[in-house]
Amino acid sequence: MTAAQKETLGFQTEAKQLLHLMIHSLYSNKEIFLRELISNASDAADKLRFAALKNDSLYENDPDLSIVIECDSKKKTITIKDNGIGMSREEVVENLGTIAKSGTAQFLESLTGDEKKDSQLIGQFGVGFYSAFIVADKVEVLTRKAGETAEQGVHWESKGEAEYSIESIEKVDRGTTIILHLKKDQKEFTEAFRLRSIVKKYADHISLPVKMLKEEFGEEEKKKKKKEKEFEVVNSAKALWARSRTEVKDEEYKEFYKHVSHDFEDPLEWSHNKVEGKLEYTSLLYLPAKAPFDLWNRDSAKGLKLYVQRVFIMDEAEQFLPLYLRFIKGVVDSNDISLNVSREILQKDPVVDSMKSALTKRVLGMLAKIKKKDIEKYQLFWQEFGQVLKEGPAEDTSNREKIAKLLLFATTHTGEEKQEQSLADYVARMQDNQNKIYYITSETHNTAKNSPHLEVFNKKGVEVLLLSDRVDEWLMNHLMEFDGKQFQDVTKGKLDLGELDSEEDKKQQEKVDEAAKPLLERVKKSLGEKVAEVRTTNRLTESPACIAVGEFDMNLQMRKIMEAAGQAVPDSKPIFELNLEHPLVTKLDEESDEDRFNELAAILFDQANLAEGGQLDDPGTFIRRLNKLLLDLSK
Ligand code: ADP
Description:
Structural class: alpha+beta
Protein name: Chaperone protein HtpG
Function: Molecular chaperone. Has ATPase activity.
CATH topology of the largest domain: Heat Shock Protein 90
Helix content: 40-55%
Number of domains: 3
Region (A): 1-343
Keywords: ATP-binding, Chaperone, Cytoplasm, Nucleotide-binding, Stress response
Number of strands: 22
Strand content: 15-25%
Oligomer: single chain
CATH class of the largest domain: Alpha Beta
Binding site for ATP: 36, 40, 82, 87, 95, 101-103, 124-129, 176, 343
CATH architecture of the largest domain: 2-Layer Sandwich
Bound molecules: adenosine-5'-diphosphate
Shape: elongated
Low-confidence stretches: none
Number of helices: 23
């Protein structure tokens, strides 16, 4: 088959589904198709400029990059023409026939069928080029890659259904022209005035000039009409971040955000700064309102758009922010980096390191400010990205203090699952003689909240952080201390409430321990290798028993996480603690029948495991034992 031959190809399944969904769910916001197409044209110009840094001939003697938008009300078409990088035949198939984003299939599965909700999701996904089909029932793309010959032009066409056709054509001028054949009921977009106002709205923040036919006023003008079409630039065509803060309106910041992030929603906050002095750069950092659909995908898009002296260099420059701030979107424009920079060079450049540390501080400062000024807004951020920020103390020890101040937790203060208490809030509520920050980690909030380990804390009115996010174990391993106070896992080691226990309490405990020795030994003998130690407890007020771990051992939650990840877990046994005041333990102590003693001890041990959210080795035997006891009771 020669390349020129017309081919009809089917869209990739995902592309088909997405097209269908988008056409239906974005209908109420249909004008965004222009934003997406202008955004693509602007990216294409950026890419050409970058490629031309190394190879000037790519400009083909036409270095003035721009977008031209025209409409024809008779033919009901809108044409968007750029002289950017263009696409080869393979690129057209690759870019317009498939959806290259990883996780697309997962994304489609997450859709609910509820159009309103789905349209938000699809916004997060970013539909780009396909949005043309919201208003058009046929889309044509004519394109030719910079540096290739006129014969290597490509014509792509689709009705947005199952398939598209592709054909080689002659195209003299470089770049991409998109022709939208509007649906019958979308004629409004061919009204010059309407189109112009949308173009202005969506193009004002990009640095590329966007041209439209000059406006004509009244009959006089029409009479004078020249044969030659006259175009004028309708946007301000200056890189938004290069303008001064006072000049840029909030609306423009928001539009620019949508351009850089491919998000449909407004950002939650932004920070625009020009740095002068030893290093010179401008940064415009955005905090999104919603997590992208692929936040947890390892190779999801992260990093800033890098410009050097206004010239676009690369997308997703990850070197300027740490991973735990990967949700930040935006632009950084440096005067100190070479135009020939590559990702490898960026990784080693000390200039980049200094910028990274300054930008990190900038973001942490922005978050601290929101938290202080508008806690409700901060909560919104926390809900979306809190778990990512929790990776911070492990990754970035130099900012550990700052990050710790930004953390929010669920605690026994309210018992609510929502994470809304800061460590400063906790410290302010600490008891006079309390010197540690207590926490418990579990698989779920309820397991943490109802853990027997909290009984004594509840009794004494001492607050405990309730941690149930996966990342929490990791976080607590790196947090160490806050405000001079150490963190203490309530399930680890012997519970030493320090100053919270009076001397008298302690003496009393020692006496009790002494008296209980025979019972403890008997239980240890009965449970054998399952436990490292059996001892009395000062943690419990209501439960008969609980499981604790050694001070330097891994707690149960960490163990579970590591096991789930298929990692080897050190072999350490739990400590079994008995509440001597509990009637079941008294009963155990009084049991003279050895078999019954063993059964009861085993049940108490299994129960304690269950209360921690643990899994029993042998649930069947546990149930059989329990049922036997229940039957005995009803006798
Ligand atoms: P995105 O822009 O998010 O990558 P799109 O669906 O909008 O997704 O576009 C897919 C790809 O098609 C782009 O990444 C780009 O490579 C290519 N493309 C789209 N429009 C143009 C254009 N006007 N000029 C050159 N390439 C384009």
